[in-house]
Amino acid sequence: MRPHRAPTTTGSNHSRSDFNKYPNSSLRFPSMTRARKRTKKPGSILLSRHRNLRGDGSSVVASRVLSNTSSLSSKVGRALIRNHHTLQKRLSQALSKNDTETANSIRAEIEADGGIERYQQASVCGQGNQRGGDSSKILIGWLREVIQSSTNKKVTNKRLRLLEVGALRPDNACSRSNLFDVTRIDLNSRDPSIEAQDFMDRPIPTADSEKFDIISLSLVLNYVSLPTARGEMLERTTEFLRHTLLEGDQEEGPSRVTESFPSLFLVLPAPCITNSRYLDEERLEGMMGSLGYQLARRKLSAKLIYQLWHHIGKARSSGRQREFSRKGEVNPGRARNNFAILFR
Ligand SMILES: C[S@@+](CC[C@H](N)C(=O)[O-])C[C@H]1O[C@@H](n2cnc3c(N)ncnc32)[C@H](O)[C@@H]1O
Fold it and tell me: In this prediction, does ipTM exceed 0.95?
């Protein structure tokens, strides 16, 4: 059986609850809030473990958030996402110890907090322009540059097949661009055009027509709790990429287009790479190289790291996969997080 995959934080341990982080919340001290006459933004509500539970076990907080989709404050949204990641990580740990009782109580806690729906809702709010925006805009910018620079009309007129793993909505920049035929999947579908599917259970395609020119894995790898499960996910992407779209273009020699497809668009919270004890850009490049990927583009923002990895093929991989089956400390230091990726 595959190990349970659950989200993780960027490796930091959240020893203090969100309750403690937002001690002035109106949910904890409603009367105090009134006394201070604070003007609170709509939807600015506490994510607290000490929340009010209803008779049916659902939380008042969860229901308020769900009924107020557009107005989650970024602070609350971030706390909500962190809490969901922490709970899922604890769930993974309980399951790996076969501790069913703890696992069930954590599951109940996740559900009481609104479950994956509420987590996704917070993620959608996080995509709002004021909050970092839709990560697929970066991909579109890169691809337009590449495609416009190609003189080979055969290639530029082709619509690219895109597999979007972890699709929250059908109207992001990729979907609006007209560059792609998009296949969208997510563990939990929020729209009829998004198939509810775990990428790790998606059947491996045999025909090229079922494969893709590009896979988007934006803020999905860090959702997976276990380092080896993250490695498996990356490894699996290579099975879904086709190397035939650009035949013909190859005859004219390498171009920016042939140097970009097939490819993987990978987005991670920046601290996964910039502040991890076990992973930095160099190590990730080594790991990806062992799968046959070469870094084509990258952008580091304050919050996220965006990378476009060109798959040059398994035959041309570095073959160093075993080297990355153990954690190696690349950045010692107490203030680091423990985000890691491992191959089996
Ligand atoms: C933080 S959201 C990111 C969504 C969006 N891609 C973005 O960049 O904002 C992570 C999403 O990945 C989905 N996800 C995580 N693991 C997955 C898997 N194995 N297969 C499909 N979807 C997955 C989750 O259900 C969640 O909706």
Answer: yes
